[in-house]
Amino acid sequence: MKTNLQKPKSIVLASRNKHKIEELRSVLADTSIDLKSSLDFDFLEDVDEDAKTLEGNAYKKAIYTFQKTGLSSLADDTGLEVDSLDGRPGVYAARYAGENATYKDNVNKLLKELDGVANRNAKFRTSICFVSDEGTFFFEGICEGTITLMQSGTGGFGYDPVFKPNGYSRTFAELNAEEKNTISHRGLATKKFVTFLKSID
């Protein structure tokens, strides 16, 4: 993909989630781009993620951060779609057990709903939105797998302890960062974004 865009010197990740910041910094390690985050800007407020789609939430966060900082901005939203739950928790994955739910609360609710359910197929989907002076761009990553019967592993965050990607005998929480970034939904979406960045002269 060749573009006439100008490669940004700095990008602001519209997030205060240290796990997401670390993951993105790792993927961008071989670029010359200075990664900043919402933690670097005291004046940035939280954006209500009330859109009905992952793309909508990612766009809301990215455009707000871009408008407030004047810097190229990146945001993502991730959903966990479980087949037997008709795609739930989906876009509500981060607040499945309530507005102030912890990772543990969300995982416990999911496991309770799947108690005794044979079909545990699920997929993680991430939508990344990048906003710059030259436009708005979206990148998607999907990782399919199954929800385990119990939690396993101490790495990662969110639903990682109960999500086992297809082809693996370990959960996301049991994989190291490099392994996870290679196959994860966010890793795949981010790779598409990095490929896009590298196509810019």
Reading the helices and strands in chain order gives EHEHEEHEEEHH
Helix share, percent: 25-40%
- Counting H and I runs of at least 4 residues, what is the number of helices? 5
Share of residues in strands = 15-25%
Q: What is CATH's topology name? A: Maf protein
**Which stretches of 5+ consecutive residues score pLDDT under 50?**
none
Number of domains: 1
Tally the beta strands: 7
Residue-averaged pLDDT, rounded?
91
Q: Specify the structural class.
A: alpha/beta
CATH architecture: Alpha-Beta Complex
Write the layout of secondary structure elements.
Elements: E1 10-13, H1 18-27, E2 34-37, H2 54-69, E3 73-82, E4 89-90, H3 103-113, E5 121-132, E6 135-147, E7 163-165, H4 177-183, H5 185-198
Parallel strand pairs: 1-2, 1-3
Antiparallel strand pairs: 3-4, 3-5, 5-6, 6-7
Helix pairs in contact: 4-5
